[in-house]
Amino acid sequence: MGGTFNPVHTGHLRVAEEVRETLRLEKVIFVPAGNPPLKAGSGLAPARKRLDMVRLAVADNPFFEVSDLECSKSGPSYTVGTLERLSDAYPGKKLFFITGIDVFLDLHLWWRPERLIELADFVVVSRPGYLFAGILASPFVFKGKNLAKKKKELAAFDEAGKAGKTVSLKLASGRGLHLLRVTGLEISARHIRALLKEGRSARYLLPEHVLSFIIQNKIKF
Ligand code: ATP
Ligand code: MG
Q1: 98: burial class by Cβ within 10 Å (0-12, 13-18, 19+)?
Q2: For the segment 149-183, what is each residue's pLDDT rounded down to a tens digit?
Q3: Tell me, what CATH number does 7's domain have?
Q4: Which pTM does this prediction carry?
Q5: Which of 15, 50, 205, when mutated, tests ligand 1's pocket best, judged by the most ligand atoms within 8 Å of its CB?
Q6: Which of the ligands is closest to the CA of residue 9?
Q7: Residue 70 CA to ligand 1 centre (angstroms)
Q8: Which of 111, 54, 49 is nearest to 83 (CA)?
């Protein structure tokens, strides 16, 4: 699961937990982005601090790990490179790349997306404010026959799908695309940063330890 984690919050943790349980994954590896090209200059805390916060957040979950593959590099790092390195590090294991639907809909902006979708199955989770229906317009989704039926299925999934429900599609690469409805948590790092800037409370939106770390280290977003 990649992200800027600026800062990590309860939305990220709950997504990881629900994906792990539903797809019976052995573990979830959080990979905070070092210097994400798409987020340059938007109040990004130092990579080292974001990494420390993710470590604090997952410390008590035996299924969660943190990788410094991207944060320990200077200069930009791309998910393609990260997935290639993870495949080498875990030979014989099946990799799943976990993203929210908001991120998947922007995949065309990423570095070499056609390669990216060859390197892992994708797990795309719901997020308040975004619909799965738009996913069929993505060039990275395999359309096949029965497009009209798939459209209907996704519309129903958006409307009435409950947390834990999945829809299986294929990526254009032939790898799996697993859509998962998760508990809707309207939490974003952007909102947390805005609250903190205004001196308002962000309690319960992120782990207590992470909030204390932000205050103690005087992290400015
Ligand atoms: P920002 O507001 O800075 O973009 P964010 O809350 O979106 O922060 P990211 O680090 O950008 O957090 O997200 C990492 C991954 O987690 C992305 O794939 C994103 O879609 C997903 N994600 C984050 N928050 C949620 C949430 N509340 N529900 C579902 N998915 C989420
Ligand atoms: Mg985001």
Answers
A1: buried
A2: 999 999 999 999 899 999 999 999 999 999 999 99
A3: 3.40.50.620
A4: 0.96
A5: 15
A6: 1
A7: 17
A8: 111
